[in-house]
Amino acid sequence: MQTRVARQQDSSPSAGNDKKAARILWLLANEYSFTTEELSLLLDVKARTIQDARRKQSFPNSSNDRYRRLGLLLGIKKNLEILYPRNDEVRQNWLRIPREVFKTKSALEMIGEKPVESMARLFTVRRLLDMQRNGTIASLT
């Protein structure tokens, strides 16, 4: 019979989830060539924490916020794969290309403009790509 404490621990992020999240994070980091500074911004952790996590291939400071951010990055990746299925170069560089919708900045620059709002801005990028994918907006130039 499980105790209440044991059940609560089971529902929290486990070491297995951290391993999966770490694997996904470092695959994304390699695919998009994210720098330590970019990952620090995207995950809202210190650069030193990212360096340590990269060295260990671990997930930095597990929290619901970090998991949400990782989920948003996965959503961005999914949308880019659907929108540009045969163009690896476009998918890999999309976040770095300046666009009018971001006031002639890249998505990464726009997210980094106000680090306090980085989660909301990451969400905005994801939603704009969702809208382009489902035809609500024609393109993000």
Structure description:
The structure is a single chain. The relative contact order is 0.11. Helix 2 packs across helix 5, helix 3 packs across helix 4 and helix 7 packs antiparallel against helix 8. It is built from 8 helices and no strands. The N terminus is likely disordered. By secondary structure, the protein is an all-alpha fold. The longest helix is centred in the middle third of the chain and has 20 residues. The chain has one domain. Helix content is 65%, strand content 0%. The radius of gyration is 17 Å and the shape is globular.
Draw up the topology in text.
Elements: H1 4-11, H2 15-31, H3 36-43, H4 47-56, H5 64-83, H6 88-93, H7 107-113, H8 118-133
Helix pairs in contact: 2-5, 3-4, 5-8, 7-8
Rg over C-alpha atoms, rounded to the nearest angstrom: 17 Å
Overall pLDDT: 89
Q: Based on helices, strands and strand pairing, what is the structural class?
A: mainly alpha
- Provide the domain count: 1
Largest sheet: none
Helix content: 55-70%
Q: Alpha-carbon distance between the termini?
A: 58 Å
Counting DSSP E segments of at least 2 residues, the number of strands comes to: 0
Shape: globular
Question: Can I get a quick summary?
Answer:
The chain has helices spanning 4-11, 15-31, 36-43, 47-56, 64-83, 88-93, 107-113, 118-133.
